[in-house]
Amino acid sequence: FLHLASSIWKWGPRDIRGLSRTVAPEGSQRKGRALLQFLADHFYDVEALREYLFRKQVLKVHQKNRSFTHIKEQYGPYIAGAYFVLKQGGAVKFQGQEWMQSNGRGRFSLDFFKFQAVPVEAVDASGCAINYQGLDNLLALKELQSLSLQRCPHVDDWCLSRLHQLAGSLQELSLAGCPQVSERGLACLHHLQKLRRLDISDLPAVSNPGLTRILVEEMLPNCEVLGADWAQGLKLGPEEQS
C-alpha cells in the first residue's frame, strides 16, 4: 500500500495529466469522478491513507525547520538566520539595509552573504511554517528588534516560552492570527520588558480576548497592546452595557 502511495506522490505533472486524459477525456467533472474512482479502487483503508498523508506533511514541516549548522559555522548566525527565513518565504532586514525577501517562486538573491558582520534587526515570517525547532535559527539573532509571526500555523505556547532569549533586544512582536497561541503562551511574554508594540489580535485559542488584553497590558506596562477591545468576551450587566 505504502509503495503504491509513494509511487503516486512521485508522479509529475505529465503523469497526472496523462492519467486524466486516459480515464476521462470528456470534461473536468468526469475527470474528477474518474480520479475518485481510481483512489477508491486502490486505497481501501482511508485511515491508513490519511495517516500516510499526515506523516508526509509532518516530515515536510520538520525538513523546513532544520538548523543550517554548516552555514552558521562558516558565515555566522546572522547569515544562517536570514537564510532560514528567506527559505521559508519570509523577509529580513539587516541594520542599515533594505528589506530582502524571496520571490513568488521561493527564490532570492544571495547578496546578503556579504553582510556577515551586520546584525539582523527585523524579521517578517508571516504565514511561514516555523515551529519550536525552527526557532533555533531566530533565537541566535541577539540584536533582533522586530519579529512578525502572524498567521504562523505551527507557532504555539511552547514557542512563545522560548522568546525570553530575545528579551535584550525585541521591541515589536506580532502574533496576530496564530491559531495555536493561547493565554498560557502570552503569559510567557512577561520576560520581554523592552517590548513597545505587541499584536495579539485574532487568536482563536484565547477564550477571553478582552480580559487577556487587560492582563497583558498590566504585565507589560510600557507596551502598546493591539488586538481585542478590552470589553470583548466580558459578560456585562444591563447597566454596564448601556
Bin the strand percentage. Answer: 5-15%
N-C termini distance: 64 Å
> Mean pLDDT across all residues, rounded?
82
CATH superfamily of the domain at 68-226: Ribonuclease Inhibitor
What characterizes the major β-sheet? Answer: 7 strands, mixed
Which outline best applies?
A: globular
Q: What is the total tally of β strands?
A: 7
Number of helices, counting only DSSP H or I runs of 4 residues or more = 11
Outline the low-pLDDT stretches.
1-25, 236-242
In percent, how helical is the residue content? 40-55%
Which structural class fits the helix and strand makeup?
A: alpha/beta
Question: Largest sheet, order of strands side by side?
Answer: 2-1-3-4-5-6-7
CATH topology tier name of the domain at 68-226: Leucine-rich repeat, LRR (right-handed beta-alpha superhelix)
CATH hierarchy class name of the domain at 68-226: Alpha Beta
CATH architecture of the domain at 68-226: Alpha-Beta Horseshoe
Q: Mind telling me the C-alpha Rg?
A: 23 Å
The succession of helices and strands, N to C, reads HHHHHHEEEHEHEHEHEH
Family: Belongs to the ATP synthase subunit s family.
Function: Required for the assembly of the mitochondrial NADH:ubiquinone oxidoreductase complex (complex I). Involved in the assembly of the distal region of complex I.
Protein name: Distal membrane-arm assembly complex protein 2
Subunit structure: Interacts with incompletely assembled mitochondrial NADH:ubiquinone oxidoreductase complex (complex I).
Q: Could you describe the 3D structure shown?
A:
- The chain is α/β, with parallel strands linked by helices and 242 residues long.
- It has a domain at 68-226: Leucine-rich repeat, LRR (right-handed beta-alpha superhelix) (Alpha-Beta Horseshoe).
- It is built from eleven helices and seven strands.
- The protein has helices spanning 2-9, 13-23, 28-42, 46-64, 69-75, 77-88, 136-139, 157-160, 183-187, 209-219, 238-241; strands at residues 91-94, 99-101, 120-124, 146-148, 172-174, 197-199, 224-226.
- The chain has a seven-stranded mixed beta sheet with strand order 2-1-3-4-5-6-7, covered by helices on one side.
- InterPro entries: LRR_dom_sf.
- Interacts with incompletely assembled mitochondrial NADH:ubiquinone oxidoreductase complex (complex I).
- Required for the assembly of the mitochondrial NADH:ubiquinone oxidoreductase complex (complex I). Involved in the assembly of the distal region of complex I.
- This is Distal membrane-arm assembly complex protein 2.
